[in-house]
Write a structure and sequence with these properties.
alpha/beta, 6-stranded mixed beta sheet, 18 helices, 20 strands
């Protein structure tokens, strides 16, 4: 449902802007996706890595199964479609029964970089779906890596997988063959050996085999089709729920094959929100002269926008966006969003210009679409990116095998 609009005292028709400081921050440093792999490999003895998620107990063999689009609230809402996942809810976050947070924005490219590097968005440098490349002035799609940029310059930090592999841990990624040579995989998920398998069942079986292949192992596997169904049909759709049922069986299949001394962690890169197809919930930037005024580039995605102003217009653009949508979006200047910690505890110099002059994050079931320049994204039924619980909270379900 749309969030009720706050009303200023004495001015019944004037909405009250949302304070950017009230946006619910990710738990950077203690309970975010970026904290998972450093915690796991610290327990395996990798030098330079420290445990950040205090609730987790070390294991010799760790497997992370990341299911694209599987938010915590979506599991809670579908116990019949996901009976096995539901049975594991109490195991989440070391048996506390609590979720972790994705990071901002809650989107795949950002989250996968956070998972793989152990860095927060402000340092790994993938702070959105599309961001401006300061070197060229163009928008770069960081999921598809277009226009191309040198991967190791764009994201120079070593992945946790690489650190684990160099420390003698058997390290492997099991995913679709289509992802093997992508720039995103190279800068976020590389290290050890990549194994491409087409079907979900094949991935589960091979992940279990790879987990058993070393006395100390770190295995990552991934499934994307749930997210695709959510984008196309929405999380309330039969198609999405059918995918959830399949995912539930995949998790159980992998859990039942765990070798001794293993821990399986089931998590996700973000949740999702269904956006009704009407003008009250979809604000079309390409048709809104107020929002377009002074804007050179519109980046990010519908629920987490980076707005790049023409030179000298940043202050005016911020004021306009606050006045037009500030009662429904948390709207902050670049420096304010950074100071509030939206992207983590620090921003690398190379990343600063990638963040919008204005950053806008949706509070309710709303989106800023761009029907002309982003026709495919604008047609999506389900979206994500912001800091609401439905997008930000993700599971960290745990299954452990016997010690011997």
């Amino acid at each position: 449902m749309v969030q009720p609009t706050a009303v200023a005292q004495g001015w019944p028709d004037e909405p009250v802007p949302l304070d950017p400081a009230t946006a619910p921050l990710p738990e950077y440093g203690s309970g975010s996706l970026a904290d998972l792999l450093p915690t796991l490999v610290a327990g395996q003895g990798v030098a330079g890595c420290t445990p950040r998620i205090a609730e987790l107990t070390p294991a010799d063999r760790n497997c992370v199964f990341l299911i694209d689009g599987l938010g915590w609230e979506q599991i809670l809402a579908h116990p019949d479609e996901a009976p096995y996942l539901t049975s594991l809810l109490g195991s989440s976050r070391g048996g506390t029964g609590r979720p972790i947070t994705a990071g901002f924005p809650a989107t795949t490219a950002t989250s996968l970089a956070s998972v793989g590097t152990g860095q927060f968005p402000g340092t790994h440098g993938l702070p959105g779906y599309t961001v401006r490349n300061p070197a060229t002035g163009e928008l770069m799609n960081q999921l598809r890596w277009k226009p191309w940029a040198p991967p190791q310059v764009w994201q120079p930090y070593p992945t946790v997988f690489r650190l684990a592999d160099e420390a003698g841990i058997h390290t492997a990624q099991v995913s679709s063959p289509a992802f093997q040579d992508t720039p995103l995989t190279k800068i976020a998920l590389s290290g050890g050996t990549f194994h491409g398998r087409l079907t979900g069942e094949e991935r589960m079986d091979l992940a279990a085999e790879q987990l058993a292949a070393g006395d100390r192992s770190l295995v990552y596997t991934y499934y994307s089709e749930l997210d695709g169904a959510g984008h196309r049909f929405g999380v309330a759709s039969d198609a999405w729920q059918g995918q959830l049922m399949f995912v539930d069986r995949l998790v159980q299949r992998l859990a039942e094959q765990l070798p001794p001394r293993s821990a399986l962690y089931v998590t996700a890169d973000h949740g999702m929100v269904d956006i009704p197809f009407d003008e009250d919930h979809r604000i079309d930037f390409d048709e809104d002269w107020e929002l377009r005024a002074g804007v050179a580039l519109l980046g990010g995605e519908g629920r987490a926008r980076h707005v790049y102003a023409v030179p000298g217009a940043a202050s005016d653009v911020l004021t306009c966006w606050q006045e037009v949508i500030g009662d429904r979006f948390w709207v902050a200047s670049r420096d304010e969003a950074i100071a509030l910690g939206w992207f983590g505890d620090r921003i690398d110099e190379r990343v600063y210009g990638r963040i919008g002059d204005v950053v806008a994050a949706a509070q309710g079931d709303l989106a800023i679409t761009a029907s002309v320049n982003e026709p495919n994204e604008s047609a999506m039924a389900g979206m994500h990116g912001s800091m609401t619980p439905a997008e930000q909270l993700v599971p960290l379900l745990e299954v452990r095998s016997e010690a011997s």
